[in-house]
Here is the input.
Amino acid sequence: MTSVRTPVIGGLQQAALPRRAVAGLAAAVVAVTALLFSVTDLQGTAGFVVVATLLHLAAQTVLSRVVEGPRRAADRLVTTAVVAAFLLALAPLVSVLLYTLQNGLERFDWDFFYRSLRSIGARDAGGGANHAIVGTLQQVGLATLMSVPLGLLVAVYVVEYGRGRLAATIRFFVDVMTGIPSIVAGLFVLSFWILGLGFGYSGFAAALALTVLMLPVIVRSAEEMLKLVPNDLREASLALGVPRWKTVVRIVLPTALPGIVTGVMLAVARVMGETAPVLLTAFGAASIVRTPFDGPQSSLPLFIYQEAASPQQTAIDRAWTAALTLILVIMVLNLLARLITRRSKIGR
Amino acid sequence: MSSLSTTPPPSVSPDGRAGTLPRTGGRSSERRGDRVFRGLSLGAGLSLLGIIVAIAVFLVVQAVPALRDNTASFLTDTVWDPNAASPAFGIVALAFGTVLSSLLALAMALPVALGVALFISHYAPRRLAGPLGYVVDLLAAVPSVVYGLWGIFFLNDKVIDTSAFLAEHVGWFPLFGADGIYGRSVFLASIVLAIMILPIIASLSREVFLQVPTSQQEAALALGATRWEMIRTAVLPFGKPGVIGATMLGLGRALGETIAVAIVLSPAFVVSLDILTPNSGNTIAANIALGFAEASSTGRGALIASGLVLFAITLVVNVLARAIIHRRREFTA
Here is the structure.
């Protein structure tokens, strides 16, 4: 593409940088950066990319300013910077996933999923996270059982019944509640359930803390979904003489169901990775605790935290495998949630 | 139970509003169902408000005994020794570290997040925009404990190199004072926090940028604006309140983040600007996670008191953020 582009700004015929010139500039910049890195004490791949990008931005701006004028130069600068920002944001995601995969496969074996840490020290090989997986399933399951009905009712109130100041207040505080730090939810259950009422650490206490965190997420997503249900459906049902509550239960909720399920799955995926509230409420345990009411229990993120604190490589390997397991489950939940939304009639 | 007695007879409907239909006996039992359902959903809504109030109340109740035993001033001292025989603890060092690390994270995350949001809303090919946005959202799906693990075992080495470089070449800058030991620092914690809040700011800003009226953007382009000039004159002014709100939500998230910071940071109860060196700071949330296991009863109360401060700070930040977002929503609606 050597042809001069149709001018957009300035005179009717204005010079524009051909794409080839930009590519050539990029190559030159990489060469200069390489030279710079071999001469000075600069080193490292990340540093190389950063220096090269900055040099390219500067050189391109100067060149474009001379050839195309300042406005075009600013446009090019921003375009390159925006693309660079996007790539920069992807770097940690790719790095985390690859690094976790690489380290997690070490212990991704039968023992890891079928054994607990009972009588396994940090130094010992073997051992597994069965107790933590059981704990996570019980705690998250209980939290889902508690937060879904409550959350749906709140959403129904806000969308179907709520009018005026009270509904606006509730809606506002649902948003505010989304921002409550997870550690504060843990401290709340600690103060209220464990220290206040004296029940002691348990998986159930963790489920209570997770409920506080799940509730606003479920309300928000259910609210959005209920709003998307066409009013025609409600009016048709009411016109047939169906009472309001039956209209909500039989018509509105089923129509919004796929979206609500998606919201619940995303909420589950979010709280499944929570460590801090579980640390304060379930405390952690090394062996399998069969019910969430039998005292301290572990969970997958808590297992990662506690194993990673050990200086022993065997324990750290276990932490990585647990991290890999957790990421896989959460990614699958996210993907499923997205697939359900795509197949539903309303919603995106 | 006879429901007729509880409902006024249909003839007594003096206001004669449209829609007040005469009701038969069967209808009134259905209305009772309605009342129950309405009551249930209202109760759920109120219980949600109740939870927020209860959080504040129970944290205060559990913090008060420890605060009473405190031999230092909670609001003005930097010392943190609540497990001693004569407990002494103050929030200053913790609050300072919390705010410093969060602001640093914000400074790093905001430009990148805005770039990401603009890329997805205005630069990426239309068909790719959705999937790419989803990929960025996946950053938010990674649990914080995994970020902590990655931060301490992978990122720390890179940050040590960068820190050494910064201290050597730009050591005159107030934040980059150092004594030759780097890593596990506030700098590392801030980078991890920045990565964690980036997807929040990016996805909320993206939504606002996508709402900019097409007519305004096309008008700018028709006047001969380049893409950047169009964004500067049409997109950014329209999106500003939304971006501010998103930024504050990101800040709130960074202030309360616990486990990732607890894993990567080597903590100390000092007020220091030397972000490159270990033992130069701590955060409220991380301190709760780190100190909880060994806390005495007073120590636990002290941690709860610090949690109360965190709750108050994040509440203010969140209320402000939501107020900004809500006001603009009413404005555009």
